[in-house]
Amino acid sequence: MSRWEPNAPARLAQAAMELFAEAGYEETTVARIAERAGLTERTFFRHFADKREVLFAGSSELEALFVDTVAAAPESAGPMQAVAAALEQASGWFVDRRTFARARQAVISSHSALTERELTKMARLATALARALRERGVEEPAASLTAEAGVAVFRVAFERWTAPREKRPLGEIITEALGELRTITSE
């Protein structure tokens, strides 16, 4: 194995997802992931703390995208409009990631500890969004309620988007979910 290989994180993630599908999450080791990727275990640990992190890499980037978009929303935008803009930006982030997202979702859904980790990630996202909304001058409890609603829309839309037969883009599904939320909150 060579000392440096281009795109090591993506290669490791791809190898991990293949092995999770073939052998199962529990049975897959870091050594096997590194071997499949043609890299060393040391290289794996330069990019990921453990095999779980392959599934959650990018979380901080996604959170920053949400927060930065809310912060950059026009002053005239209401709280839900700012969060909707963040949801739209997030959908663009996932454009070429559906295959990986589907495989990732399948692994997470089949392991309670990973599901718990995913829920913790979503709770952190809601906390960060609420903070960004408060920084825009949105009072409580409106900031927290809006953030939680935005994360709920994201989770529902993402789940629909990763469904095996779904073909629509994530942005379209997010728009649909936002419309459904507006409908139920206006009753």
Low-confidence stretches: none
Question: In one word, what is the shape?
Answer: elongated
Q: Order of SSEs, N→C?
A: HHHHHHHHHH
CATH class annotation of the largest domain: Mainly Alpha
* Helix/strand/pairing category: mainly alpha
At the fourth level of CATH, the homologous superfamily of the largest domain is: Tetracycline Repressor, domain 2
Mean pLDDT: 94
Number of domains: 2
What is the number of beta strands?
A: 0
Overall radius of gyration: 18 Å
Strand content: under 5%
Features:
single chain, mainly alpha, Tetracycline Repressor, domain 2, elongated
Description of the structure:
By secondary structure, this protein is mainly α. It folds into two domains: 8-54, Arc Repressor Mutant, subunit A; 58-185, Tetracycline Repressor, domain 2, CATH 1.10.357. It has ten helices and no strands. It has helices spanning 8-23, 30-37, 41-47, 52-56, 59-72, 79-93, 98-109, 112-135, 142-161, 170-185. The longest helix is centred in the middle third of the chain and has 24 residues, at 112-135. The chain is elongated and about 55 Å long. The model has no long low-confidence stretch (mean pLDDT 94).
